[in-house]
Amino acid sequence: MIVLKFGGTSVGNAENIKKVVDIITACTTHKIVVLSAISGTTNSLLSVSKAIKNKQFKESLKLIHLLEKEYQVLIHELFVSNQYKDKALSFVTEKFNFLRSLTTNNLNLKNIIVAQGEILSTNLVSIFLEESNVSSTLISALDFMSVDENNEPTISKIKEQLTPILNQKSTEKLWITQGFICKNEAGEISNLQRGGSDYTASLIGAAIGADEIQIWTDIDGMHNNDPRFVDNTFSLEEISFDEAAELAYFGAKILHPQSLIPAKENNISVLLKNTFNPFSKGTIIKNKTTNKGFTAIAAKDGITAIKIKSYRMLMAYGFLKKVFEVFENNKTPIDMITTSEVAVSLTIDDISHLQKIISELEVFGKINIDSDLSIICIAGDFSQKKEGTSAMVFNALRKIPVRMISYGGSDYNISLLIKTADKIAALNSLNNELFKEKQLI
């Protein structure tokens, strides 16, 4: 059995949903299909939730009405027969009436409201499959996808809850379910955060021991650089989990950073494919390195650098522990870190507690803050520390000021901190220098 995940753009309109169904039906293997909410729906539902929270009840009803109209148009474009149009419209009306019933509720209903996006998309696709005479079974992710008190999913529990559901129809070849949504330890509707549909697919794949997990998006696999800013990029045929994880964390939007962990730990390959170009090979992610040096480049914006300078750090032990405790207490993760005898510089991308962090760090020494920064991640297999590797990187960036460098902490990543204003120039310079041989082919 395999798992296929389709993102919001893939099911973004009637034409795209038909493309998704063509892909699903062309695959004769037993499969579980994970669907995101239709493109734009989650943002609309977040606006509804915000309006309700702010007691803007007329505004929330207006937003609900506008979104319902979009779904009514979609249904008329997607379905052919009046029988299935009516069935889809009846379901949509029921769901939007449910949303209207929440507009005068004073409780925090954000997770319940946002979850309706995936519930809508999966039910509409399920009804369309029925109209197309394709046998399928719709199962609710809320019946098996759950997180613990730390909002972490447990694969063993997911397997325990999912297996009997699948066994009820052991002859079924196609299952449809929701990405993103789950239940928390208290049995309340929750979610796996933004990008969580990738994570859902990986968790399901691990729970059922899938032969492969396929992530279908709107680009031809993972590129060696960001095609929005760089010309002459190319799709990677193969990449290791370690390299892909570095790229996902440091800016590659095609994957959710957490989504690879269950697949990697259970040695399940992940195939990245393009819904709108299904015959393209895409990118396969496996538990092995290619040993080819530089693989790809990604950039992460919105970075803030914090420098702590203190002569108390010189020849002292325990200093860094105290610094890290400040970030731990403020629930703020650190991306990069460099140290010298009397200073430590580190970066964060979450500045919600920045002022409190600064005030707590000031007892250690002088604090300097730099903002509007980006981390450039150069992924590859650097385990053998080949001669000339760092020279090629620095030569490419000879005209660009580099604020911080991290090399050696990972065998699969070289990280550089630069001003965001220099990001596009840096990505292009690195692309021309590190992949020039590939561009000549």
Care to count the β-strands? Answer: 16
Radius of gyration: 24 Å
**Helix-strand topology string:** EHEHHHHEHEEEHEEHHEEEHEEHEHEEHH
Mean pLDDT: 92
CATH homologous superfamily caption of the largest domain? Acetylglutamate kinase-like
Major beta sheet, strand line-up? 3-4-2-1-7-9-10-8
Calculate the terminal CA-CA distance, rounded to whole Å. 37 Å
CATH class categorisation of the largest domain: Alpha Beta
Work out the strand percent: 15-25%
Helix content: 25-40%
The 3D shape can be described as globular
Count of alpha and pi helical runs: 14
Supply the CATH architecture of the largest domain.
3-Layer(aba) Sandwich
Biggest sheet descriptor:
8 strands, mixed
Model regions low in confidence, pLDDT < 50 over at least 5 residues: none
**What structural class is derived from the secondary structure elements?**
alpha/beta
Overall number of structural domains:
2
